Amino acid sequence: MSTSVPAYLDNAATTPLLDAVRAAMAPYLEEEFGNPSARYPLGIEATAALELARQRVARATGARSEDVVFTSGGTEANNLAVLGLARARRRHGRHLLIGPTEHPSVREAARALEGEGFELEDLRLDRDGELDLEHLAASLRADTVLVAQMLVSNEFGTVYPVARVGRLVRANAPRAVLHVDAIQGLGKLPLSIGELGAHSLSVSAHKVHGPKGSGALVLSEGVRPRPLLYGGAQEHGLRSGTENVAGIVGLGRAAELAAGDLSATTSHLEALRELLATEVRRTGVARVLAPGTMRSPAITSLLLSGPPAEVWMHHLEARGVMTSVGSACQAKKRDVSPSLRALGLGEEQSRHVLRVSFSKKTSEEEVRTAVRAFVEVERELGAPR
Amino acid sequence: MARYGELWLKGKNRGMFERRLAQNVKHAVEGISDVRIERDQAQLVLHPESRARDVARRVQDVFGLSSVFLARGTSADTEAIVAAAEMVLAEALEARPRDRVLTFRVQTRRSDKSFPLLSTELDRLVADRVMPPYEERLRVELSKPELTLGISVRPGRAYVFAERMPGAGGLPVGTVGRTVALLSGGIDSPVAAWMAMKRGCEVVFVTFHSYPYIGASYEQKVRALVCSLGRFQARSLLYSVPFAGIQTQIRDHCPPSYRTVLYRRMMHRIADRIADAEGAQGVVTGDSLGQVASQTLENLACIEDAARLPLLRPLLCFDKGETIELARKIGTFELSIQPEPDCCTVFQPRKPIIRGRIEVCRNAEGELDVAGLVSAAVEGAERIEA
Hints:
The complex is a heterodimer. Chain A is an alpha/beta fold.
């Protein structure tokens, strides 16, 4: 297998580090190694770096900097929100509502709460693949304490109407908080915790050209989860542990760049999506799955014929084209993703869905290379069976 | 102190067995501590510089040893032995419940017959000296006591111990010879390889991958299994053989129901060639009679027909449950159950043949350039030092 990657089209999984981000981080991996809890200049410099990063993340998400909690990444941010907010509010009730396509770091955390006496209910998609808001409104209760609804689906790119969810939650379950997993939304859509009506929002650095192992939970004023980690009371006691200074600096810079370049990025992503759709149509190698719902321009799902998408994926990767099937249909999981079911795909067909995802670093040439590889692979796999 | 198992039965070869065992032990503890190894009658005495318990646990995985004792060394005089015995007993009792009386004895072995006391005399003397502080916790019982304080008196040195750790049994790896073991990502084949090692075979691993029909992560899984099994032999080699080319040929030219049997015939031809290159004299497989369609008597015969070297099938008459139990014990089970398709799932026929016939296999292969395909696969194989 080649190590250079002619076409990296799996940006929903992770993205390459930007030079500007690496440069921002470098001093904190070298001479600025201080512990932010230390009271001498080396420590104070580290604290200053954290606070700058906090401001940058706050600005990128429309929050106040004192409401930003740094974590070890998206999974921890989602766990802190789901476990921490539910536990903090348990005296108000035990009812949880979880979006239909939540990431496992939300879904499994919520499931773990069932063992603590919480009652878990799933939201639904309607026949068009839209979030079923009628069902949501009917499901909200006086004892609902947490609703978790992601902003952009990592498997399909569906953009959910979270602001409407926020309004429904406020109207029908005044004691509930709304957690929004915005990990695939940062840098793809304008992001504002206030406009979404969310009480917490999670972001991850490595999905926006930052380092792995760094993320944040952004809170609205006055909303505080119970911590998951206890110790030295860093992050206002919400997340103990010596801060990952370089990683946090990287997150801050990456978030700033992601939010700053938003309109240029969006038009670039839209152009790439259009190019892919055109080329796929012209060559006839696949069908673009285009539901009527609003979608992130960064993610396109393709329905392939012949062998399962996983076989396509490995043949493509052998040609240096990186794509993914993992999220659309996890290899050993029998469940068809609700978004695919909403498009009328059954278990067999859902095994033929390949995810292609772009970032602002993706070039048109990569898309063309990928389509050429699709054509070659189709020819190779077309042998008699 | 690491006691031999059946090694001492081996008559004139004993020296060779002992040397190999000492080498294997030395290799096993590399990176844990520097260890000086002495050979003594029916045991190796290891002198670790530090981390003796870690050394002992590691040595438990070395084949050819029946038990390992964590012992305290001392000079071979009575007072020093008593002092050591007091410490060993105190440690042993710290780790045991206080709420009931334990049966106890002292048991001396002398290899230094010039030691002034007889074994039984030393037993009694030490017991009289160490027991008084623990009168309420210990009661002497000579047969099957719960706690034995062992003393081994050797020329110039004595060892006191209370903790016996079971050894892995078997024969030192490499003393019986070298074999190739076919390794899939499944539960059975790592256990089969382990059993061959247990009986003294050094194992060279061979795996077949169908990249790009399955992912490159398959190879990572197999490498993880090889690393895990690496605890049991000094150095492991893995051949990773590209197999998709052969599979597409078989798919395109042979009866679908025979695919799996024909895959396996090709695997054995390739394994034989690798065995030749590595000086191995047999091929180990994880076959279990009747477990899947390719493991009927007829199909095993079809597969064996293409193999030249002797086939070792240590799991042949094991139930799945028995194999799983062993896999858990040796630590491969968790790795094996990681979901990862292997090459056998590629182009799997809807209805595999149950009672294959050798002539049909041979005829089907008439459509293939068998020698060319085998050579290409052998040449394309990656040799990995794990």
